[in-house]
Write a structure and sequence with these properties.
Structural class: alpha/beta
Number of strands: 8
CATH class: Alpha Beta
Strand order of the largest sheet: 1-2-4-3-5-6-7-8
Largest sheet: 8 strands, mixed
Oligomer: single chain
Shape: globular
CATH topology: Rossmann fold
Radius of gyration: 16 Å
Number of domains: 1
CATH architecture: 3-Layer(aba) Sandwich
Order of helices and strands: EEEHEHEHEHHHEHEHH
Length: about 240
């Protein structure tokens, strides 16, 4: 469904129990709704589910100027206000996690679930697409996403991205928000893989210390997509945390 927010058409899907607590899923850089569906769908019987194509990805429009991460935060907040969602539970992977973190420093959030969420300056790996495709082939539960990855993930590497999204990528990776994170007061669970080459596992240990009410779950020998590599474990952890 498309909705105009901050002068940009945003695509989102909403399903589940409308009267229940709302879970908002935000995908990583260069991805879209599809990469969050495996962790969203299991909660459709118990929660109100909103999965968003972040501006510039999927069926959502590109921003009209080079947005900062805070512009994404305001966009998500205005979208949720329009949908009459207050005090949401935010679930974010990578870029979506960075947005979630900054959102929680500014607005009321019930709980945070973070998958490999950067908060300092990042270094993007040139072989990101190749590693992602290799990962998707190896994991039976999510290898059906391989075709999606071939079409979408590579198109957002810096060299292949649009001029606007290149600018936004630079803004995003250069933003350090660690000094803001002490403002987060909601319960937070962090899931990270020890073999994450996009965001180092040491950042996970530091993040757990910075956020006052946070717990860290480490998946051994898993990558930047640890939340999918151990999908069943991730879902069980989320269910326990949400209950």
């Amino acid at each position: 469904m498309l909705i105009k927010i901050n002068d940009v058409n945003i695509n989102y899907i909403r399903y589940g129990k409308k009267e229940a607590k709302t879970l908002v899923f935000l995908h990583g850089w260069g991805q879209n709704i599809e990469m969050m569906q495996p962790v969203a769908q299991p909660f459709s019987d118990t929660h109100d589910i909103i999965v968003i194509d972040l501006p510039g990805y999927g069926l959502s429009e590109e921003p009209k100027f080079d947005w900062q991460v805070n512009d994404y935060v305001e966009c998500i907040h205005n979208l949720l206000m329009k949908l009459e969602v207050i005090n949401p539970i935010l679930i974010g992977h990578s870029f979506g996690g960075k947005i979630s973190l900054l959102y929680a420093t500014k607005y009321e959030v019930n709980k945070l679930i973070l998958f490999a969420s950067p908060y300092k300056k990042e270094i993007k790996n040139e072989t990101f697409k190749m590693k992602t495709l290799k990962f998707l082939k190896k994991v039976p539960v999510v290898n059906k996403l391989e075709n999606f990855a071939k079409k979408h993930i590579g198109s957002t590497d810096y060299k292949q991205a649009s001029v606007m999204m290149r600018k936004i990528l630079v803004n995003t990776v250069n933003l350090d928000i660690k000094d803001e994170l002490y403002k987060i007061s909601c319960p937070t669970i962090i899931i990270w893989g020890t073999n994450d080459e996009a965001v180092n596992i040491e950042d996970a240990y530091q993040l757990e210390k910075i956020i006052p009410d946070a717990g860290l779950v480490v998946y051994e020998n898993c990558t930047h997509y640890a939340y999918l590599e151990k999908l069943n474990q991730t879902i069980n952890i989320m269910k326990s945390f949400l209950n």
